UniProtKB/TrEMBL annotation:
The keyword Transmembrane does not apply. Its main location: membrane. Keywords: Glycoprotein, GPI-anchor, Lipoprotein, Membrane, Signal. GO terms for cellular component: plasma membrane; side of membrane. This is COBRA-like protein. It comes from Helianthus annuus.
Length: 414
């Protein structure tokens, strides 16, 4: 079933916190530093980046802004000589691109709106900008916080709380030897809902194994049906599609992303799994992607090739969920658009716990899979690759080898 709640069982405290620090007064207003901290463990904001919006309480204007920019200047006819950066009653702020002149930069700005997750890259999970606000009052009693905050990231998946007055933020200056405090601080929290972000799921899971020649595909129409979706059968037809219609390959599942879980080998004390992520979209690259999987044997991973793995200790001693992501040096931190290079993969070796390990009843396959924070649609358990009806004897080893070869050939064609 497609998730409908903003609550995430693997990241129950996930949110993006927006902090608005008033740091000095001006003749007709104040200067503020606005920070966005992404406290989500594995959900990032990807290209084309974040957009932060609000509604002014009075007739405020933005005289100037550093580290970001308003998308609309608005109606500034009341200021014929000294024109503000934005007079919009409902400004929408976006990040600057990397490489802008130094004078336009601010700490933690200018990343093209990309905001990494806390679990993947804590240093890159912060965005900030500074703005000078006018027409607002310039005392504690006359200034009012903006309201009706919205956060696009880039889809409309976030819902923001009302603004609250909180204890003033504390910063360290002089090399960490001196504490300074904001004059006043407002704060709000934005939480994500997959259903709000997209009416249909965004990824699905397929499965295969060394002991069964059949491949379990993604469920049909997992992310919509071909008759109701814009898709292209060949890359040559892309140029004939106009507008901003999302373009992806025509598939039976119609998902932009497919995650394939292949049980590759079964050793005496270990077993091996191959994970492949394939992009079926022609106009989207997934930068700094994340993959989350839940499986009882993830508490005993011996080795992960090509990807970085981090366990998610959500419920104390229970360690059955972890996050995977690519490595920049290996150039697999980006899942490129559909085509010959539109996939990344890794293999992992897991140590067996003989008290629980089995290949029966689909135990070797994941319970849940998330891509970029969105839950993927799983096949029905009855369709999982099943073991042969009888125990494999020594005389059947040759047959098993043939099955492995067939599965390998089929898997390479996915």
């Amino acid at each position: 079933m497609f998730p409908q709640s903003a609550y995430d069982i693997f990241d129950p405290t996930a949110n993006i916190t927006v902090t608005w620090d008033v740091i000095s007064w001006t003749p007709d207003g104040y200067v503020a530093v606005v920070k966005m901290n992404n406290y989500q463990m594995y959900r990032q904001i990807t290209s084309p980046g974040w957009t932060l919006g609000w509604t002014w309480a009075k007739k405020e204007v933005i005289w100037s802004i550093v580290g970001a920019q308003a998308t609309d200047q608005g109606d500034c006819k009341e200021f014929p000589s000294d024109i503000p950066h934005s007079c919009d009653k409902n400004p929408r702020i976006i990040d600057m691109q990397p490489g802008v002149p130094y004078i336009q930069q601010f700490q933690n700005c200018c990343k093209g709106g990309i905001l990494s997750s806390m679990g993947q890259d804590p240093a890159d999970s912060i965005a900030a900008f500074q703005l000078s606000v006018g027409n607002s009052g310039n005392t504690y009693s006359t200034v009012s916080p903006p309201g009706n905050f919205s956060l696009l990231g880039p889809a409309q998946g976030y819902t923001c709380s009302p603004v609250s007055l909180v204890p003033s933020s504390v910063s360290l200056t002089s090399g960490g030897h001196r504490k300074t405090r904001a004059l006043m601080t407002w704060q709000l929290v934005c939480t994500y809902s997959q259903l709000r972000a997209s009416k249909t799921p965004t990824c699905c899971v397929s499965m295969s194994s060394f002991y069964n020649s059949e491949i379990t595909p993604c469920p049909s129409c997992a992310c919509g049906c071909m008759n109701n979706e814009a898709c292209v059968k060949t890359q040559s037809t892309i140029s004939r599609i106009e507008g901003d219609v999302p373009m992806k390959q025509c598939t039976q599942h119609m998902c932009p992303i497919r995650v394939h879980w292949h049980v590759k080998k079964n050793y005496n004390a270990y077993w091996r799994v191959r994970i492949a992520i394939t992009n079926f979209g022609y106009n989207v690259n997934y930068t700094k992607w994340t993959l989350v999987a839940q499986h009882p044997n993830l508490n005993n991973i011996a080795e992960v090739n090509s990807f970085i793995y981090k366990p998610l200790h959500v419920y104390g001693s229970i360690n059955d969920t972890g996050m995977f992501y690519g490595v920049e040096k290996l150039k697999n931190d980006v899942v490129l658009e559909a085509g010959s290079n539109g996939s990344v993969y890794s293999e992992m070796i897991l140590k067996k716990d003989r008290n629980i390990f089995t290949l029966n009843d689909g135990w070797a396959f994941p319970r849940k899979v998330y891509f970029n924070g969105d839950e993927c649609i799983m096949p029905l358990p009855v369709s999982y690759p099943s073991l042969p009806n009888s125990v494999i004897r020594a005389s059947n080893i040759g047959q098993l080898v043939i099955i492995q070869v067939v599965v390998a050939i089929l898997y390479q064609s996915l």
